[in-house]
């Protein structure tokens, strides 16, 4: 019994170790932060060397990169997309707007705290975060995955009612 | 015991009844409508007795007075006459049965008297051995058909009747001049006698009367370019009359042309021209039929085309070709009669002659439509119907025609067959098309005659070769003129 | 016995060669972009990641079977390609049969993608099939040229007949060029990548695929890369006398293809087909003409 | 029991008449009656399995005895056609279950089968012509029971059928006139010594007739609309039987009556085939490519099948007219195979129409969940149509390709192979738009077709699979037929073909086994991994947009519209348009000719007088001059 658990754990650990080397991010640019992505993935900073590449559809991707402020209309799509993604899946809050609303702190149309609605694994602070910061964020996420701590998607399932309630409050579903 | 095998009876019976009915018509109007039926039935009995003799190869003669031939009016029945007169009376019988139920507006006594006269005249032409008789009979025929075409007294029937009258008179005068010229040269009117004497007549002197007689007959025979009365007259007439005109009148006229050309004049120089005329008739008839929207008018044009077809076959001039021609004549008479009769039923059911209005008719009145289809298929020459075998025979003889013209006509006949097929199939299509239209149910009494005719066609289809063998005999007898000549001239001595 | 063993191991071999070629290609593209690039085994990592997804979605049976058929048919196709010294299954089917066997995989893929109901997938498939009609024309003509020249349709014989340096690339350069362009089109590289075209149809057929489905598709794709390059190698580069030369030649093909791939933008699908029907076809026909006149 | 050929021919007709009479009693009586009489021919045919009978006289026309006979080729085809008739009849019962036409349709059906047997058994040019005409006539009436446009189709069909019939009739009469006999043997004997023009003209006339029925390219105009608008069971017959009858006659006439030797004697050989056969090869190839390309851009399920059917008969013509043992084997095998797989396609599409009431592809979709058996049948059929192993279409196309290689005809081979790829395109379109993709809301209640209706598709699907994996079974019949036609039959085994001159070895079971192996491996990988979760069709990647039931997001209209753009320049050259222009011209001319009959009395009289005068003048002057 113990052996099997150990084996399974080891298996998961190996998988996590490999998995962190291949992270596909959803090319879903919600806001101005997306402007920092091209330098991140092209010649200078080359995210691909970590196995991070932009991908197109929600089904294929592992990382939901929320690049900046989320207004209410976008949130609806964002939630749909997140739910379409296949676990394990990770959310990166990108820029101050996802943390506290940033410069839109007093806007009626903008959702201020992303982690009320989606389980964010890593925040990258800054307005904008530089490509170095973005890469650092990715590295952090990779480390978390390796350690088995990037469990946002589990949290979302476990606290589904909580997230739904929060989403409903804003979206009036 | 009266000798029933007397051709004279075929003329006398109808004539007698016609006059009788004129006399009794003021008193017994209702009974007159059975007169044509009785007449043709009696005629058929006579034809049966004649037929027994004819089929054994003899030529049955009848005279009007006690004189000897060639100085009397003589009626001669050989196999060709027999088949024509048989057709006349069978169709006459069935169509008069149809007419009894078709002509509803009383009084109809004049109609039936005229119809009796029509039967009489047609029978007369078919059996007469006298050239002047041909003229007289044609005048009777024309007069009765003028009356019948215009019988409905509607605007177009009167117009059509008038056109018919004008051209019929033209035809009659041509015919008369031709007969007069012949009489002037030979001093006789008996066909056989003329034939023997014509050997001593110069070619031009022979030619002019022939051409005149030919064109005189060609008007009734609906040959191009003298057939323009037909497409008006046939549709305008009551359907029974259309059937009679199409099935019988043209056929008898063509019979007369055959008789005059082969037996009397023995004329081969004219054949290429006849060939061309027939070809044009066929071609224009079918083309014009293709564009018609009026059912009966289409059938009328189709009659022109068919006439062209069997004249074409005849004008090849061989025994096989005459045989094929006669077979096609039989096919055409029966099937076209059915088509006109059925068209009558259809028109009655829908109240319009337009083909497109027939949409869905076949879904209501299946029997009528099937009769139409069968007859049309036989007419087009779709195997295994009788018409196919006659068409086959015609096509085969066309190749006998020397030179390029033979192949051309071969191709043209096939082309015409395509066109004819298309316009008839178009009617089939419309008949069985889905539609919400309500039609009256067919009158079962009216269906009887076409049904019997189709039955005859089916029987013919099952034994096509026996018919073709018989027509071959006819052609054989026709080609060997001397048999006819000697038996007519010597038969009653 | 050895032959049977080789036969069974070939798909695995093909898979790893394909992975290697793909990884090499990604590395090379990165270097052309002046990037460091992912590690050589990155495709393998991607596949492992995809296969190890915790949950997968399905739109129906055919959606699941699509990738399965794709991989299965790819395995089948591999078996019909000869290896140096090994005839594999070529005695049971020739070039013509091979052309049709190659299609089975696309059929499976197309059916699976179609079942998802996603318009992007359908458009992608429609484009893929149209493109196939485009590149098949020069490919067929090029193949015919070889058939006419050698009088055989046996793939193994093609390989043996070119031994030494009698490569068709040198003997029939025009045909080889046409064949190369066609194979290149079949690979779906720029400028012929209208099928996946991420910016237009969101990776086309693969749009709804994720997780193990996509993993299988990538396995299949790796084998397909092997097949296309091996096919070209056998037809035009004289096959090989041993397995390493064989892989080397495939690598050469990939290198040339990658050079083109990195510099071109994308054709519209009509233009791609028109292009295939114009220049490569003309070149192939010219090659055919030369063989016809001179070869006999 | 000893059954004569005439009896086989009359069996279905008799059954049809009985059934028609029985329909007065009860529908079931009628159905069972006719079913029995459709099964009977199999038993009756059984005794002719290995016999060649040449003259069984049944009628005498124009002094000639007409005869029936049977040989390996007609035996094979009559067996196949009996099967297809049986299945189509089962299908027809359902298709017409609500229509009042069903009794009449069954009657016509029976006559059609009789006539088809008649053509197959005919041993003289008149019999075959008679039966052929009857086929055309009955098909005309059967078509009319179809969809809205079927009445136009009827007219188009019959026009072409009449053209073909009269063309053949010309040849029949002409040959009879020259040879004095109708019998195949006598005609063949006459032709071997006949002058070249006669041989050529009669051959062309006959071939026009056959190829119209086989819907080969310049003569195909009637086919698309007819196939599309006819009732589905009749479409099956049109495509799987009537078309094959035309091709059967083509085979018989080319190889048995005219003979390749005759052609080689009178004309030069091109690519190892007589010139006229070479021309026919090109006609076949053009039919393939144009038929395929047009099929790709169709929007109507049955139109796709119609054009596909045209294209596939191009393959058959191409194979047959190669005139080599390999090519003829391929052509004959494709006759069998095409009948089978196109039958399935028509049955499945018919079933879909039966359930949904539309054949418009853009209205359908997603039916795989509702009609899985239809889907599987169609899947097998499209694999066969595209010529992909291991289904039956592959083997016959393979033979044709190899025959082309053997004759060294790279261009034709290119066209044929490209047609194969193209066929993949249109069959995918078909299955995609019907069975895959979004299920419209209105079809949520659709059920699988009734079990009896599945029988036809399943039987044929099994046959397609069987003949595909074990090509030896149909090859047994085909090689016999080939021997009858005077070729050295190609060698075959149960599993495929051994290595022989011009033909690379082929072993379909090994391909299938390898394919299955690959599947098993892939399936193992797939099913050992975490399970899948089924999602609703609306849970779909749509760039984050949320789909709703009322949105039609499926891509099914104008599926290959970009391909349409590519071939648009060629549309200007469409054969239909040439014919339309021609017909327009003929109509104008005909209309002018018709106006001779103006309806105006003055015109008539003056015309008559003028012409009379002219004739009289000609005669009188001519008479003087003579």
TrEMBL record, chain A:
Statement: the UniProt record of this protein carries the keyword Iron: yes
Domain annotation NADH:ubiquinone oxidoreductase-like 20kDa subunit: ranges: 29-140
Family to which this protein belongs: Belongs to the complex I 20 kDa subunit family.
Pfam families referenced in this protein's UniProt entry, alphabetically: Oxidored_q6
Protein name: NADH-quinone oxidoreductase subunit B
Record GO cellular component, one term: respiratory chain complex I
Keywords of the record: 4Fe-4S, Iron, Iron-sulfur, Metal-binding, NAD, Quinone
Species of origin: Caldisericum exile
Gene3D superfamilies: 3.40.50.12280
Automatic annotation (TrEMBL), chain B:
Matches recorded under Pfam families: Proton_antipo_M
Residue stretches making up the NADH:quinone oxidoreductase/Mrp antiporter transmembrane domain: 129-404
Primary subcellular site in the record, as a coarse category: membrane
Keywords assigned: Cell membrane, Membrane, Transmembrane, Transmembrane helix
Keyword field contains Cell membrane: yes
GO cellular component: plasma membrane
Keyword field contains Magnesium: no
Membrane-crossing residue ranges in chain numbering: 6-28, 35-60, 80-99, 111-127, 133-152, 164-184, 207-226, 238-258, 270-291, 298-322, 334-352, 364-386, 406-425, 445-462
Membrane-topology descriptor: Multi-pass membrane protein
Location in or out of the cell: Cell membrane; Membrane
Family classification: Belongs to the CPA3 antiporters (TC 2.A.63) subunit D family.
Entry protein name: NADH:quinone oxidoreductase/Mrp antiporter transmembrane domain-containing protein
Source species: Caldisericum exile
From TrEMBL, chain C:
Membrane-protein topology: Multi-pass membrane protein
Keyword Transmembrane helix recorded: yes
Residues that span the membrane, as ranges: 6-24, 61-83, 95-113, 125-147, 167-187, 214-237, 243-264, 276-295
Keyword line: Membrane, Transmembrane, Transmembrane helix
This protein's record includes keyword Transit peptide: no
Cellular location(s): Membrane
Family matches, as PANTHER family: FORMATE HYDROGENLYASE SUBUNIT 4, FORMATE HYDROGENLYASE SUBUNIT 4-RELATED
Protein name stated in the entry: Proton-conducting membrane transporter
Organism expressing this protein natively: Caldisericum exile
Automatic annotation (TrEMBL), chain D:
Lineage top rank: taxon: Bacteria
Subcellular location, record wording: Cell membrane; Membrane
GO biological process, one term: ATP synthesis coupled electron transport
Keyword annotations: Cell membrane, Membrane, Oxidoreductase, Transmembrane, Transmembrane helix
Coiled-coil portions: none
Example GO molecular function: oxidoreductase activity
Matching InterPro entries: ComplexI-like_HydComp, NADH_UbQ_OxRdtase, ND/Mrp_TM
Domain NADH:quinone oxidoreductase/Mrp antiporter transmembrane: 122-417
Gene Ontology cellular-component annotations: plasma membrane
Pfam families: Proton_antipo_M
Chief site of localization: membrane
Name by which UniProt lists this protein: NADH:quinone oxidoreductase/Mrp antiporter transmembrane domain-containing protein
């Amino acid at each position: 019994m113990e052996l099997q658990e150990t084996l399974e754990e080891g298996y998961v650990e190996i998988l996590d170790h490999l998995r962190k080397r291949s992270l596909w991010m959803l090319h879903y640019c919600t806001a101005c932060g997306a402007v920092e992505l091209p330098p991140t993935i092209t010649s200078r900073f080359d995210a691909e060397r970590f196995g991070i590449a932009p991908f197109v559809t929600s089904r294929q991707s592992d990382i939901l990169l929320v690049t900046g402020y989320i207004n209410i209309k976008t949130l609806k799509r964002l939630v749909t997309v997140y739910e379409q993604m296949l676990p394990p899946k990770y959310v990166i809050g990108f820029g101050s707007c996802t943390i506290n609303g940033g410069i839109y702190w007093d806007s009626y149309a903008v959702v201020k705290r992303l982690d009320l609605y989606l389980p964010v694994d890593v925040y990258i602070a800054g307005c904008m975060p530089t490509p170095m910061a973005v890469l650092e964020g990715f590295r952090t996420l990779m480390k978390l995955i390796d350690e088995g701590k990037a469990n946002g998607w589990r949290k979302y399932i476990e606290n589904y009612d909580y997230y739904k309630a929060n989403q409903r409050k804003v979206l009036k579903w | 015991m009266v000798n029933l095998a007397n051709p004279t009876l075929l003329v006398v019976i109808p004539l007698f009844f016609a006059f009788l009915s004129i006399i009794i018509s003021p008193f017994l109007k209702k009974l007159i409508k059975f007169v044509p039926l009785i007449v043709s039935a009696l005629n058929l009995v006579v034809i049966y007795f004649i037929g027994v003799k004819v089929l054994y190869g003899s030529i049955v003669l009848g005279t009007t007075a006690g004189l000897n031939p060639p100085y009397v009016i003589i009626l001669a029945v050989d196999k060709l006459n027999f088949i024509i007169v048989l057709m006349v009376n069978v169709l006459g019988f069935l169509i008069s049965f149809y007419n009894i139920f078709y002509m509803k507006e009383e009084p109809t006594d004049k109609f039936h008297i005229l119809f009796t006269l029509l039967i009489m005249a047609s029978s007369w032409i078919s059996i007469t051995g006298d050239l002047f008789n041909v003229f007289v009979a044609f005048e009777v025929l024309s007069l009765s058909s003028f009356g019948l075409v215009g019988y409905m007294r509607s605007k177009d029937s009167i117009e059509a009747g008038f056109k018919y009258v004008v051209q019929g008179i033209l035809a009659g005068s041509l015919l008369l001049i031709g007969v007069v010229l012949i009489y002037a040269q030979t001093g006789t009117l008996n066909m056989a006698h003329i034939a023997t004497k014509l050997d001593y007549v110069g070619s031009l002197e022979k030619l002019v009367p022939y051409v005149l007689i030919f064109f005189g007959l060609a008007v009734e025979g609906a040959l191009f370019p003298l057939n323009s009365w037909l497409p008006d007259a046939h549709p305008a007439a009551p359907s029974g009359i259309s059937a009679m005109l199409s099935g019988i009148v043209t056929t008898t006229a063509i019979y007369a042309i055959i008789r005059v050309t082969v037996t009397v004049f023995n004329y081969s120089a004219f054949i290429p021209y006849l060939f061309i005329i027939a070809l044009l008739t066929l071609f224009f008839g079918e083309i014009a039929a293709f564009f018609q929207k009026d059912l009966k008018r289409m059938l009328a044009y189709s009659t022109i085309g068919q006439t062209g077809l069997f004249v074409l076959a005849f004008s090849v001039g061989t025994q096989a070709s005459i045989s094929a021609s006669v077979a096609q004549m039989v096919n055409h008479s029966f099937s076209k009669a059915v088509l006109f009769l059925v068209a009558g039923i259809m028109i009655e059911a829908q109240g319009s002659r337009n083909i497109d209005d027939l949409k869905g008719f076949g879904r209501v009145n299946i029997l009528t439509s099937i009769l139409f289809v069968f007859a049309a298929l036989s007419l087009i020459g779709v195997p295994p119907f009788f018409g196919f075998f006659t068409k086959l025979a015609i096509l085969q003889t066309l190749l006998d025609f020397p030179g390029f013209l033979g192949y051309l006509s071969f191709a043209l006949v096939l082309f015409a067959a395509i066109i004819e097929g298309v316009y008839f199939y178009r009617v089939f299509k419309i008949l069985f098309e889905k539609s919400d239209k309500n039609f009256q149910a067919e009158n079962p009494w009216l269906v009887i005659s076409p049904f019997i005719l189709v039955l005859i066609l089916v029987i013919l289809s099952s034994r096509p070769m026996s018919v073709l063998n018989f027509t071959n005999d006819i052609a054989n007898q026709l080609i060997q003129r001397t048999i006819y000549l000697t038996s007519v001239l010597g038969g009653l001595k | 016995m050895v032959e049977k063993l080789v036969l069974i191991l070939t798909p695995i071999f093909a898979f790893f060669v394909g992975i290697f070629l793909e990884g090499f290609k990604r590395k090379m593209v990165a270097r052309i972009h002046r990037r460091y690039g992912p590690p050589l085994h990155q495709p393998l990592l991607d596949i492992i990641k995809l296969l190890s997804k915790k949950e997968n979605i399905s739109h129906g049976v055919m959606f699941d079977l699509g990738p399965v058929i794709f991989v299965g048919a790819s395995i089948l196709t591999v078996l019909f390609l000869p290896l140096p010294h090994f005839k594999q299954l070529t005695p049971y089917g020739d070039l013509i049969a091979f052309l049709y066997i190659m299609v089975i995989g696309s059929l499976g893929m197309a059916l699976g993608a179609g079942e998802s109901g996603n318009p992007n997938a359908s458009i992608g498939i429609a484009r893929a099939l149209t493109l196939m009609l485009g590149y098949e024309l020069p490919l067929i003509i090029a193949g015919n040229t070889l058939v006419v020249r050698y009088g055989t349709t046996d793939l193994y014989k093609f390989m043996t007949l070119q031994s030494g340096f009698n490569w068709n690339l040198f003997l029939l350069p025009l045909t080889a060029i046409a064949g190369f362009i066609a194979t290149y089109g079949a690979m779906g590289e720029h400028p012929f990548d209208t099928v996946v075209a991420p910016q237009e149809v969101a990776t086309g057929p693969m749009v709804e695929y994720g997780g193990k489905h996509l993993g299988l598709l990538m396995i299949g794709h790796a084998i397909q890369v092997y097949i296309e390059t091996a096919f070209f190698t056998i037809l035009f580069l004289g096959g090989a006398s041993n397995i390493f030369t064989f892989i080397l030649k495939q690598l050469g093909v990939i290198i040339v293809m990658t050079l083109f791939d990195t510099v071109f933008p994308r054709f519209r699908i009509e233009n791609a087909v028109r292009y295939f029907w114009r220049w490569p076809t003309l070149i192939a026909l010219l090659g055919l003409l030369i063989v016809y006149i001179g070869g006999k | 029991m000893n059954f004569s050929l005439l009896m086989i021919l009359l069996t279905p007709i008799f059954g049809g008449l009985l059934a028609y009479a029985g329909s007065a009693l009860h529908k079931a009586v009628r159905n069972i009656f006719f079913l029995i009489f459709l099964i009977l021919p199999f038993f009756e045919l059984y005794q002719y399995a290995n016999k060649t009978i040449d003259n069984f006289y049944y009628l005498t026309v124009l002094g000639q005895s007409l005869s029936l006979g049977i040989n390996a080729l007609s035996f094979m085809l009559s067996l196949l056609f009996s099967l297809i008739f049986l299945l189509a009849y089962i299908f027809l019962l359902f298709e017409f279950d609500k229509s009042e036409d069903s009794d009449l349709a069954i009657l016509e059906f029976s006559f059609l089968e009789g006539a088809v047997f008649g053509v197959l058994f005919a041993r003289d040019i008149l019999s075959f012509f008679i039966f052929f005409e009857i086929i055309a006539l009955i098909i005309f009436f059967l078509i009319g029971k179809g969809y809205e446009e079927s009445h136009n189709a009827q007219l188009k069909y019959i026009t072409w059928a009449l053209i073909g019939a009269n063309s053949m009739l010309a040849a029949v009469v002409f040959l009879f006139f020259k040879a004095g006999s109708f019998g195949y043997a006598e005609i063949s004997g006459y032709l071997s010594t006949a002058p070249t023009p006669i041989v050529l003209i009669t051959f062309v006339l006959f071939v026009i007739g056959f190829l119209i029925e086989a819907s080969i390219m310049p003569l195909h105009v009637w086919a698309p609309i007819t196939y599309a608008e006819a009732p589905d069971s009749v479409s099956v017959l049109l495509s799987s039987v009537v078309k094959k009858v035309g091709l059967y006659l083509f085979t018989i006439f080319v190889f048995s009556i005219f003979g390749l030797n005759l052609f080689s004697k009178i004309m030069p050989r091109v690519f190892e085939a007589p010139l006229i056969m070479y021309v026919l090869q090109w006609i076949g190839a053009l039919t393939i490519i144009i038929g395929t390309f047009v099929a790709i851009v169709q929007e109507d399920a049955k139109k796709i099948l119609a054009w596909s059917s045209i294209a596939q008969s191009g393959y058959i013509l191409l194979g047959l007219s190669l005139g080599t043992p390999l090519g003829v084997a391929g052509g004959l095998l494709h006759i069998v195979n095409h009948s089978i797989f196109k039958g399935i396609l028509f049955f499945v599409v018919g079933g879909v129409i039966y359930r949904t009431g539309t054949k418009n592809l853009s209205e359908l979709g997603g039916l795989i969940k509702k009609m899985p058996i239809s889907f599987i049948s169609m899947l097998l059929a499209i694999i066969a149509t595209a010529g992909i192993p291991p289904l039956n279409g592959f083997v016959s196309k393979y033979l044709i390709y190899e025959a082309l290689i053997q004759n060294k005809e790279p261009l034709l081979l290119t066209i044929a192979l490209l047609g194969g790829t193209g066929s993949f395109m249109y069959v995918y379109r078909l299955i995609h738009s019907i069975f895959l993709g979004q299920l419209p809301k209105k079809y949520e209640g659709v059920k699988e077709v009734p079990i009896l209706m599945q029988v036809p598709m399943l039987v044929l699907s099994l046959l397609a699979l069987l003949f595909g994996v074990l090509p030896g079974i149909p090859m047994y019949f085909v090689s016999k037929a080939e021997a009858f036609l005077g070729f050295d039959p190609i060698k075959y085994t149960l599993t495929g073909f051994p290595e022989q001159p011009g033909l690379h070895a082929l072993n379909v079971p090994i391909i299938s086994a390898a394919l299955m192996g690959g599947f098993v491996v892939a399936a193992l990988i797939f099913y050992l991994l975490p399970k899948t979760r089924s999602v609703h069709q609306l849970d779909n990647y749509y760039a984050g947009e949320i789909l709703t039931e009322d949105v039609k997001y499926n891509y099914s209209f104008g599926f290959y519209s970009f391909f349409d753009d590519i071939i648009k320049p060629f549309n200007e050259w469409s054969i239909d348009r040439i014919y339309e222009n021609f017909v327009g011209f003929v109509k104008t001319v005909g209309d002018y000719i018709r106006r001779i009959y103006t309806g105006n009395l003055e015109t008539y009289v003056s015309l008559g007088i003028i012409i009379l005068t002219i004739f009289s003048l000609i005669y009188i002057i001519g008479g003087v001059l003579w």
